[in-house]
User: Fold these one by one.
Assistant:
Number 1:
Amino acid sequence: MNFELVLRSLIAEFDRLQIRCAAIGGFALGVLGAPRQTMDLDFLVHRDDLTKLDGALTGLGYRRIVRTENVSQYRHDNEVWGSVDFIHAFRKISLAMLQRAKSYPAFGGAQSVKAVEPEDVIGLKVQAMSNDPARKSQELSDIERLAARYGAKLDWDRVQEFYDLFGLGEEAKKLKDRFGHAQ
């Protein structure tokens, strides 16, 4: 996947159509300063914008392969364009994530990318490992990279709320003990 080409094209369409979305997942880790290798792009998108989103992506040659209440997945036949996954924001907590999202520089400042805040990436990672225990080691690694990068700057109360939501409150306390100090 040519991330720079795809992001430039997607962001232009998102802006043109006023699609409310923000990067999450591996690419968001990179713009937040905790990079890791990723194979696709993941976004949080406002559920009310799904029809516009579908039109934008099909216009770029993507085809939707999955759409449930919670997620949409798109793939392109040309590997340069790769795949793009979307989590639908419609619950109070995910709508708040979208509301808090900020723009960050990417590709050496050549592009600006809207991404959810580090605490919200952590919350989504906690959800992912709760939903699929096989992903736990990767998700924990991502969480620890963000916690190490942001330390005391994180809103640890928000992080705790995410962990509590999935019955993992003690793990959040241990994470804060390790990384919640001033750097």
Number 2:
Amino acid sequence: MDVFEAVKGRRSIRAFESRGVPAELVEKLVDVARWAPSAGNIQPWEFIVVRNLGIKRRLVEAALGQGFVEEAPVVIIVCADEYRCLMGYGVRGKTLYCIQDTTAAVQNIHLAAYSLGLGTCWVGAFIEEEARKILKIPQGIRPVAIIPVGYPAESPLPRGRRPVSQIVHHETF
């Protein structure tokens, strides 16, 4: 599958088959995530892989009742190590670069999962402190995205996109 097909074909999946996701595929997703670009090659990402039903149920609460988080066989929580970026780039590193870098890793997971026949959804709506407690995340590590992963049990239609002519500016805004 080429990258253009993956980018245009991927959808947010919120319904999953009950079959499990092999550990080797989850490892592939984390491996491809770590190849994302990062400022100064600091690589501020940390990944928490959750299969435990009890933890997933608690994550649903943190994720404002998004029940499909529990239904996914695997959930990957992508975190940003703020201290790594603070040491390299000061406040801008902590407040911006670590988020940019980590979200690039998140996108890699989504595209790779799609190419492997898996479905994912980017869950950014969650109570950060609650997720931190559930997952025992130390201070300085910030949970950025919750990614349910599984075999899709739905095929959503593509959603509209703004035309290029409305979003591109040449030379100045």
Number 3:
Amino acid sequence: MTDMLGELRVLLPTAQLLSAFLITVPFTAGFGAIIASEKRVFLATFLFSIASLVLLSGPAVQHRLIRPLINRARFKHLATLQIVLGAATLTFALVLATQLVLSSVLGHTIGNIAAAAVAVLIVMLWWVCPKLWRAGGHC
């Protein structure tokens, strides 16, 4: 449980910060001027970010509501599933946020290239390396 809490202390602030930033975007002066496809990217980014926030905060709320824990193994399995799903939705949110911001600042080509690079980086570090490590390989 201590390891799980430590992991959440890293992931949850990222989801919180990204969600807080995205909540303010529609209220900025220039938001109305963006094209429909950029609004769809924004909407997807926002929904993935909120989903990650809900999934990553779920174990803490559930832990508090079902105390005392009678079946720790079952709870840990549920919490692990939520953390992995939260990390997956956070992956999409971070990639889309990269595309959204850099496309606005540097153009769509650079935004797409940067988003692809961030996607590769996250997939390798968060998803592929742990699988390789677990299989006895190196990352």
Number 4:
Amino acid sequence: MSKKIVFAMLVVVMFSMGQTCTPDADMDGVKDSDDSCPNTPLCATVDALGCPSDSDNDGVMNGCDECEDTPAGDTVHGNGCTVDPGGSVPSRCQGPDPRAKAIEYSLVGMIDANRANIQIKGVVENIGLSNYDSGPDQQDIQLWEDDAMVHSVQFEDLAVDETIYIEYQREWDLGDEFLPGFYKVIITYDPDIRDDGNLNNDDCRETNNMVVRRASDINSLLE
């Protein structure tokens, strides 16, 4: 075998090794060493720095957002589409259907003119045609402050039209430049929940399992 052929084979092998050894943890096409925004959702579109955009500023990244022109101030589902106006119940699907319905802000008490203790409350209800019946450690409700989970609660059973809540309190300072941008409530399930033989804990509609609201709405409580 000629030296030229051997050299060409070595180049191909080295190139292949370089390709497979370049880490890209969030699989957005930008290697980790160049990625300024790690942990980007798989559905999001990113720029050369690996950062997603949110053209309508609703908290759902472009590429994941099915409604990219959401009006300012709307609370949205995880797909970026506006939550049912007035919290109305959409068409009911067969089986249990826990949904993240709303995020509510309330004033606990003023500390001074610019600071207050506020409560963030997530609302979850079963709008399906069947009760949700499950076991422990298979489902929970999470409350997120931007990209950090701040609280979670587990639940097991949820009757038709029954409502449960997740609540979290924090100090809110209008002078703080690092206040969060969004709050999210997410219903999560054990990855194997559909394989446990219990049809009563198979969510019949998972597109409503997350709701997102702008944190700036809290400012009106201090006015």
